[in-house]
Amino acid sequence: MKIIGARLVCLVMLVACTSGPRPPIATPGDRPAQDGQVPVARWDRIEPDGVQLAKSVTDVVATGRDDGWAVGYHYAEVEDEPLDGVLVRVGLRGWRAVERMDKRFPRAEQTSMRAVDAHGTGYAWAVGNAYLVNDVVPFALRWDGIAWHTLTPLGSKPDQQFTDVAIDGPRAVLTALRGNRSLLLSWNGERLQRLVSERGERFESVAARGGRTWIAGGQSPGTCEQTRPAVWHRPTSQTAALEPMRLPELGTGMLTQILQIDVANVWAVGERGTGTACDHDGHGTPLVLHWNGTVWQEVPLPGEGGRLTGITAAGPNDVWLAGVRDGHGVSLWHYDGRSWTREAMTFEADLEWAESRAALTIVPGTSQLWLAGSTGRDFDRHVAIYRRL
C-alpha cells in the first residue's frame, strides 16, 4: 500500500460525504493526455550499504527523506535455488537487507514478502507467505520502533496467502486469499481479527484511513476467465460489511492497486484480460479508474502501458503511476491535476513478465518520489531503488 504525503488533510479513499450535495468535480482525463519523456539524469540510484543480500524489491514505503522500508526477495545464484523473502531498510547511507525470512520460518521451503506500509518511523507492517511442503503460512510482521514481531493468524493450510496491508493510525488492515474466498483482517491493538470472508471475490490491494477501508481486486461467478474488476468500500471501522462499488462496463480484468487522495479523489489501476486473475504469463490492456465522488470512470493513459504495478501521490495534482513492459523497462506517468504525461527511464524489468514489478512511494511532506524493483535478468538481478531529483 502506497501512502500520500503527510501534508494532506485526508488520504483515505472515501465515497461522497453524506452531509449534503457537493459541487461537480472534473474527472481526470477530460483533457488530452500528453506523451513526453524526462531525462534519466533526474534520477539518482540509492546504492547498497554493505553486502547486497537481496535481488529484488516488490514494495517500498518512505517514512522520511532518508528513511524507509522495503520488502523483496533473495536467492543464491544457482539454478533451482528457492526464493527467500527479505526486509530492506533504506537509510542515509543507502539500503541494506536487515533480515531474511528463512530465519523466522526454518521449516519453509521458500518464503516471499508481498507488501509493506508505515506510519512514521516507529510503526510499520509487512506481509508475506512461508511455503511448507504441502501448506502455506501467511505471516504479518509488525514494527514497534524497536523490533519486528511475527503474527500468523491464518495458521497453516494449502492455497492461502496474504496480498496487502495498509495502516490507519494504530489500525492495520490486511487482505488475504484462501482458495476461492477472500479475507479482510484488522489489528485491534492486541490481535488480528477476521472481519470479512467473501466467496468468488479476490482482494488484491487495500487502503485505509479515518476508519474507512477500500479494497481493489476482482469478482468472478465461476472460473478465473470470468473475473471482472471490482472495488469494495467499508465506510467505518465499526461496520463489518463491505459495500461493492458500481463500476463502468469493463469486460474481464483485475484491479491490483488502489489509492485514495480525498473524499472525491480515488484511483484504482490494473489490467483488462485474464493474465492476473488466472496467474499465467502475458498481460492485458492497462486499466485506470478514477472515483470523482459520484461515479467511477475509466481514464486513458498516453503511450503503451504494459503492466501497471505502482501508484502513489503527494497530493491531488501530483499523482504517479508505474508500469512494466517485458524487455522495455519501466514507464512512469504523472498527473498534474489536468492531464497525464508519460515519462520513460532505463530501468530494466525482470525477465518473466508475471514477476516484473516497479513499486512507488512518495516521501512524506515532499514531492520526492522513490522507484524500486530490480535490474538485470536470470540469476544476475540486483535491487534497484531510485530517487527522483
Characterize the structure shown.
This protein has 389 residues and is mostly beta strands. It has one domain: Peptidase/esterase 'gauge' domain (Methylamine Dehydrogenase, Chain H, 7 Propeller), CATH 2.130.10.150. It contains no helices and 29 strands. The strands form 7 sheets. The chain has a 5-stranded mixed beta sheet, with no helix packed on it. The protein has a 4-stranded antiparallel beta sheet with strand order 2-29-28-27, with no helix packed on it. Strands 3-4-5-6 form a 4-stranded antiparallel beta sheet, with no helix packed on it.
Order of strands across the main sheet? 1-26-25-24-23
The 3D shape can be described as globular
Tally of distinct domains: 1
Please count the helical segments: 0
Q: Briefly note the structural class of the backbone.
A: mainly beta
Total strand segments: 29
CATH architecture: 7 Propeller
**Ends distance:** 23 Å
Biggest pleated sheet = 5 strands, mixed
The CATH homologous superfamily corresponds to: Peptidase/esterase 'gauge' domain
Q: What series of H and E elements makes up the topology?
A: EEEEEEEEEEEEEEEEEEEEEEEEEEEEE
Kindly provide the radius of gyration, computed on alpha-carbon positions and rounded to a whole number of angstroms.
19 Å
Q: Please give the CATH class.
A: Mainly Beta
